[in-house]
Amino acid sequence: GAVVSQHPSWVICKSGTSVKIECRSLDFQATTMFWYRQFPKQSLMLMATSNEGSKATYEQGVEKDKFLINHASLTLSTLTVTSAHPEDSSFYICSARVPRVVSSYNEQFFGPGTRLTVL
Amino acid sequence: AQKITQTQPGMFVQEKEAVTLDCTYDTSDPSYGLFWYKQPSSGEMIFLIYQGSYDQQNATEGRYSLNFQKARKSANLVISASQLGDSAMYFCAMREMNTGFQKLVFGTGTRLLVSP
């Protein structure tokens, strides 16, 4: 199947610093990528939809100035958590939509996730 | 309104037995897709099975099958011959094809524990 990578897999940072998480589609071009957040023992909550070459679409309640998303190429989307605070500590997962030529039912393939801990 | 409902926070099953994980959904879009994902403790999301709203037959993938009852708006996952490695969180998700970006919406998940 299609492969999506995330980097870093985990990060610990001090409160007030910014953290960038990369999401890459390794063997296909993804015009659309999604960013999710998952708190312990909870479900995945969609934060934003990232489209190559345009501004991200954020879900209600997600601060766009705090969670900066850039989809600069067809294989890379980045999420930057600006001025991180302990409440931003979470598991962040990206996914990329596979083109129909690869999958007949338009699956999303997920990255392995990034565990962010803000001290 | 909750679009995807998983009412079982946790399920136990003995190895080699079958188990059904419940999922109900709510949508007015006639075109939608239903997905099941497995999330082991490592955190990765593993795609298991897909059912399209227009599919006439229930989807099957190896030991996984989806009991799709459209009128009841349910899409239960059946795992046959459970294995110890099946212990994980299981998420049901839906994609509405006629909404913007066709984003996936997830249920709250069911934690499955397979005992020897």
Characterise the protein shown here.
The complex is a heterodimer of chains A (119) and B (116). Chain A has 119 residues and is an all-beta fold. In chain A, 0% of the residues lie in helices and 51% in strands. Chain A is globular. The termini of chain A are far apart. By secondary structure, chain B is mostly beta strands. Chain B has no helices and twelve strands. In chain B, the strands form three sheets. In chain B, strands 2, 5, 6, 10, 11 and 12 form a six-stranded mixed beta sheet that branches. Chain B has a four-stranded antiparallel beta sheet with strand order 3-9-8-7, with no helix packed on it. Chain B has a two-stranded antiparallel sheet with strand order 1-4. In chain B, a hairpin with a 4-residue loop joins strand 8 and strand 9. Classes of the chains: A mainly beta (119), B mainly beta (116). The interface between A and B is medium-sized, with 25 and 22 residues.
| Low-pLDDT stretches of chain A | none
- What does the radius of gyration of chain B come to? 14 Å
The quaternary organization reads as heterodimer
Structural class of chain A: mainly beta
Number of E-type strands of chain B: 12
Q: For the residues shown, what is the average pLDDT of chain A?
A: 90
Question: What's the alpha carbon Rg of chain A, rounded to whole Å?
Answer: 14 Å
Shape of chain B: globular
Cα separation of the termini of chain B: 39 Å
Measured as a percent range, the helix fraction of chain B is under 10%
SSE-based structural type of chain B: mainly beta
DSSP summary: helix tally of chain A: 0
Which of globular, elongated, flat, extended, rod-shaped describes the shape of chain A?
A: globular
Largest interchain contact: A-B, 25 and 22 residues
Low-pLDDT stretches of chain B are none
The count of helical stretches of chain B stands at: 0
Major beta sheet summary of chain A:
7 strands, mixed
